[in-house]
Amino acid sequence: MKPVSLKKVSVVALACFAGTFLVNAKEPVELAKSNAADKAKSTFSQLLKKADANKNGELSKDELEGAMESQLLSAFNEIDTNGDKSINEEEFTAYVGNTAKI
User: Fold this and answer.
1) Which Gene3D superfamilies does the annotation name (predicted)?
2) pTM summary value
3) Which of 86, 88, 96, 100 is at 20 to 30 A from 32, Cα to Cα?
């Protein structure tokens, strides 16, 4: 299997990370809708605390890219289960599957 690019991994990792805060598949649709806005606000608040370098209450593209890269790099060793310093499709799929279960 060929290695997956860092950008592709970071996009999917961020989507999985954000998705875990927005909707829990076990909740009824009505409850999910009522909680989605609160969860989105909470997620945005957490992102601001971690990534808003100039503390203006907004995330620039550069700040968000930096946060994504930092998040991915911190998880890289966890994703790279065979320790070969690259992420293959099998490792990535296993990581995304485990993240979705949380």
Assistant:
1) EF-hand
2) 0.45
3) 96
